[in-house]
């Protein structure tokens, strides 16, 4: 069987698809599985074992008028690959169209797909209302459409020797391997409404340093988030976190997260990557819902700020004061981190959360 997975973006959404595709691979060990993904995320697919090929989709390039003539050869190549089954996990017009362009006899997608995407499918799956998390929805899609019965797991992600070596070098260079435990902190996010202020992170890290002297801390993020991480570093008065934002590639980031005892993050890509790697995670939620996109798996803790209109799912907070941020007590976040790093915390379900009083 020749199977195409269509999930072009984004970082966290792709990771949410890993358990479903892993189940697909284990149920069809002899199948050829290809993943169509935006070229900016193609490296992420390399982390998942069992993928035979990756089709990078140059979304930004195709969005420019002068490159429109290249779309036809791309579509022709999709059809010539002879896919038997195509599964659209994205559920938008563009992904649905790409699914249809393959000419595959079986094209699977969500019945609730937006932008008219479902008109491109031959099989439309209705997800039960009690399934809310993206991972559970994706798993249900393949189970229902292809009658799969295997167990769901968080698949082990690949390790590469060169990335392990780079991570060890960074740990040694910044003496992060000499502390009494290692905390990873992801203070950046694309949405302004998701971002807790640097002062909040500074207070959390200072209190943690006082309760667990010798704890090593590092700040992660993209090159664009270096300044955000630097604001957190300078907001600290007791803690001395190392700013590694922009200094790691995806592979090294994975290995640094594996080496960490806990992760503090917003609802963002690194949070989902950390959870996929099994790193105990404290996640801060404001404008989005952990029931939909919280860290998946046991051993995590979610803090949800109170706001009369939350979750609003808006990129910019519509209120004068960001109440969802201000209602979360730093002491509770510190207690959760101390428990995780002391291995005293009991595992909680993925959707387990604490609403700020």
Describe what is shown at a glance:
By secondary structure, this protein is of the alpha/beta class. It contains 14 helices and 13 strands. The chain has two domains: 2-146, Rossmann fold (3-Layer(aba) Sandwich), CATH 3.40.50.2000; 161-355, 3-Layer(aba) Sandwich (Rossmann fold).
Rounded mean pLDDT is 90
Strand portion, in percent? 15-25%
CATH-defined architecture of the largest domain = 3-Layer(aba) Sandwich
Intertermini distance: 53 Å
Stretches where pLDDT falls below 50 for ≥5 residues?
344-357
SSE-based structural type: alpha/beta
Q: What is the number of domains? A: 2
- What is the assigned CATH homologous superfamily of the largest domain? Glycogen Phosphorylase B
Strand order of the largest sheet: 9-8-7-10-11-12-13
What is the N-to-C succession of helices and strands? EHEHEHHEHEEHHEHEHEHEHEHEHHE
* CATH level 1 name of the largest domain: Alpha Beta
Largest sheet: 7 strands, parallel
CATH topology name of the largest domain, in short, is Rossmann fold
The count of helical stretches stands at 14
Oligomeric assembly: single chain
Structural notes for this entry:
By secondary structure, this protein is α/β, with parallel strands linked by helices. The protein has 2 domains: 145 residues, 3-Layer(aba) Sandwich (Rossmann fold), CATH 3.40.50; 195 residues, 3-Layer(aba) Sandwich (Rossmann fold), CATH 3.40.50. It is 37% helix and 16% strand. The strands form 2 sheets. Strands 9-8-7-10-11-12-13 form a 7-stranded parallel sheet, with helices on both faces. Helix 8 links the parallel strand 7 and strand 8. The longest helix is centred in the first third of the chain and has 17 residues. The C terminus is likely disordered.
């Amino acid at each position: 069987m020749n199977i195409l997975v269509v999930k072009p973006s984004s970082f966290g959404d792709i990771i949410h698809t890993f358990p479903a595709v892993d189940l697909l691979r284990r149920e069809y060990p002899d199948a050829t599985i290809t993943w169509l993904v935006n070229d900016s995320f193609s490296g992420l697919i390399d982390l998942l074992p069992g993928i035979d090929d990756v089709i990078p989709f140059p979304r930004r390039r195709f969005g420019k008028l002068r490159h429109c003539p290249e779309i036809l050869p791309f579509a022709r190549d999709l059809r010539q690959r002879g896919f038997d089954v195509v599964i659209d996990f994205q559920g938008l017009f563009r992904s649905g169209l790409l699914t249809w362009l393959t000419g595959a006899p079986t094209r699977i997608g969500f019945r609730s797909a937006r932008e008219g995407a479902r008109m491109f499918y031959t099989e439309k799956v209705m997800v039960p209302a009690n399934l809310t998390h993206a991972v559970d929805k994706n798993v249900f899609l393949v189970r229902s459409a292809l009658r799969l019965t295997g167990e769901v797991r968080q698949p082990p992600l690949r390790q590469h020797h060169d990335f392990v070596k780079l991570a060890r070098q960074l740990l040694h260079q910044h003496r992060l391997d000499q502390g009494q435990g290692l905390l990873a902190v992801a203070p950046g996010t694309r949405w302004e409404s998701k971002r807790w202020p640097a002062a909040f992170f500074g207070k959390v890290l200072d209190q943690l340093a006082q309760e667990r002297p010798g704890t090593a801390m590092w700040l992660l993020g993209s090159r664009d988030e270096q300044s955000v991480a630097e604001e957190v570093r300078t907001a600290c008065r007791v803690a001395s976190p190392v700013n590694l934002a922009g200094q790691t590639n995806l592979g090294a980031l994975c290995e640094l997260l594996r080496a960490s005892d806990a992760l503090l993050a917003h609802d963002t890509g690194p949070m989902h990557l950390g959870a996929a790697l099994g790193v105990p995670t404290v996640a801060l939620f404001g404008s989005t819902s952990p029931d939909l996109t919280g860290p998946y798996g046991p051993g995590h803790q979610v803090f949800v700020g109170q706001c009369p209109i939350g979750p609003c799912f808006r990129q910019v907070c519509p209120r004068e004061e960001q109440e969802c941020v201000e209602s979360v007590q730093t002491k509770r976040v510190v207690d959760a981190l101390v428990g995780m790093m002391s291995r005293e915390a009991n595992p909680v379900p993925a959707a387990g959360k604490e609403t700020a009083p």
